[in-house]
Amino acid sequence: METVGQRIGRCIRSAMPKACRTCFWLLKIILPVSLLVRLLQYSGILAQVSVFLEPAFSFIGLPGETAIIFLTSVFTPLYAPMTLIASMPLTVREVTLIALMCLVSHNLLVECAVQSKTGSSFTGMFVLRVGMSFVIAFAVHRIMPYEGYDTIVGSAADTGVCTSLTDVFVLWIKSSLSITLLFFVIVSALMILHYILEEFRLLKSLSTAMAPVMILFGLPRNCSFLWLVGNIVGLSYGSAIMMEQLEANKISHRDGNLLNYHLAISHSQLEDTLIFAAIGAPFLWVMLTRMVFALLVVWIKRLLTRLPRYHYADLPIKK
Length: 319
Hints:
Layout: H1 4-43, H2 45-52, H3 54-59, H4 67-75, H5 79-86, E1 90-91, H6 92-104, H7 108-117, H8 122-143, E2 152-153, H9 165-199, H10 203-217, H11 224-232, H12 235-247, H13 253-265, H14 269-278, H15 283-306
Antiparallel strand pairs: 1-2
C-alpha cells in the first residue's frame, strides 16, 4: 500500500510532463506577442492609433490619453497597463474605469487562444471581451459618484521609453526570462495541485461546496473547480488544468464554453484585483462589478440559446 508521500510523488511525476507542454505552448504565443507590442510602442504606432479612440473614451468618462493604456492592455499582461496607469495623473474614478476595462480585456491573443482550446471561439471571446470592456466602463461611469472618488492618484513620471532598438530587445529578453520562469513555476504548481486533489478525491467535496455559487452564476455544477482555478489564478496560468479537464471528458465543450463566458469577464479575482487596488482602484468596485457582469453575461447567453432559431426554409416567401 502506498504511503501519502508516495502518492504525492506519483502525482508530481504525472503532472510535470503536461505542465511543461502547456508552458511551451503558452510561451510560443506570449513571447512573440510581447516583442511585437514593444516594437509597436517604440515605433509610435500604438500612440497614433490611440488618437482615433479618444472620442469613444471621452464618452465613457475617460481622458483621451487613456486609450493607449487600453490598447497596451489588449496585447499584454496587466503589469504593462498598470505601469502606464500609475504614471498618469488620474482620479480614483478614472483609475477604476480604466482598470475595469483592462481587467476584462488584457493579453487577449494569449487568453483567447486558451479559451479557444477550452470550448469557445477565439473571435467570439475577443469581441465579447473588448465589447464588454466598454459596456462595463459606460455603466460604471453612469452610476459611480464623483464625490469621494475625485482624488488624483498616480503621477506624471516618465515611463522609461526605449530610445533604440537595442533597448527594446534587451528589455524584451529580460522580461521573457522572468515570464518563462514565472509560468513554469505557477503552471507546474497548479497541475500538481490538481493531480493531488484528484488522487485524494477532494474535487467532489469542493464541487459540492461550490454548487450553490455555480447555480447563482448560471453555470453547471461540474464547472466549480475550474471556476475556482480561473478566478484565483486566471486563464493563462490555469489553462493546463482547463485543457486537461476537457481532454479527460470531465467537462463538456458546451459547459466549457459557458464557463468561458463567465471567465471572460471575471477571472483572476485575487491577484488582478489586488494589483489595481494597490494603485488606487477601490477593491469592491473592481471585484463586485466584474462578478455582477459575469453573471449577467452567462444568463443572457443561456437565454439567447433558448430562443427559436429560424432558417431560410422557415421564413415566409414574399410574393
